[in-house]
Amino acid sequence: MIQLIPAIDIIGGRCVRLSQGDYARQQVYNENPLEVAKAFEDSGLTRLHLVDLDGAKASHIVNYKVLEQIARRTSLSIDFGGGLKSDEDLHIAFESGAHLVTGGSIAVRNRPLFESWVVRYGKERIILGADVRDGKISTGGWLDDSDVELIPFVRDYQQMGIEQVITTDIARDGMLQGCAVELYGKMLAELPGIYLIASGGVSSWADIEALQATGVPAVILGKAIYEGYISLSEITHFIIDNQ
Question: Which of 131, 169, 173, 207 is catalytic?
């Protein structure tokens, strides 16, 4: 069964979603991220993708108090990302209750530091964030494009031990227009053994089924839940039916 991972993106301590990573196009969905996380937990979901968008923009962790609150008051396994640029940021994230962390920009801009995290904390706790626009990696909360090609970038880290990678097709993120099934299929074919977490564009169960049929092991759900395209009750039934 494909793993369903809900997302909570945080700006100013509130639960928001952006469209195509544009900070000027944000929609506030809930003033209380803990309330949202509890609803996810109650529906049978066990993992949460928590993104500190303020941190991504500021290049250091900002909303660790939200992380701490959700970790303390739910049993969700939290993977946390956004603004993790130093050993201190990582220390704060883990101390605040993150089970895993996602490093994206740092993996491009400071490879030695990112690799040291994999060695120190273990490949089980470090996720590679490989977010892509037009086939190239984007960094800095998707504000900066690079010349780094997606497949070689992920392959290099896979060869040094990374197992999990989150890839967001930025052009599709928050647009509810379907996900990049072809891109993910190519990644799975060229990067055998990778635990690929798809992100961006999911708008229906048909999208999830297409990813599952392609062999994608996990998918992040955001706006599709918040806008009611996929309900939490449907998610509960999916989980029960596939146990």
Answer: 131
Q: Band of the pLDDT at 18, cuts 50, 70, 90?
A: confident
166 CB-side CA count, 13 A = 31
Task: Judge contact between 179 and 211, C-beta under 8 A.
Answer: yes
If one compares 26 and 56, the residue with the highest pLDDT of the two is 56
pTM of the complete model: 0.92
Statement: residue 169 has pLDDT above 70: yes
Candidates 160, 154, 151, 150; CA nearest to 112 is 160
131 is known as an active-site residue: yes
Residue with tokens 């109650």: 42
Name which residue leads in pLDDT, 192 or 148: 192
Catalytic annotation present for 9: yes
The answer to whether 121 and 91 have CB atoms below 8 angstroms apart is no
Average pLDDT, the chain: 90
How far apart (Å, rounded) are the C-alpha atoms in residues 103 and 109?
11
Structure tokens at 224: 């599709």
Phi-psi region of 200 (alpha: psi -120 to 50; beta: other; left: phi over 0): left
Strand partners, 129: 166
Residue type for 151, please? I
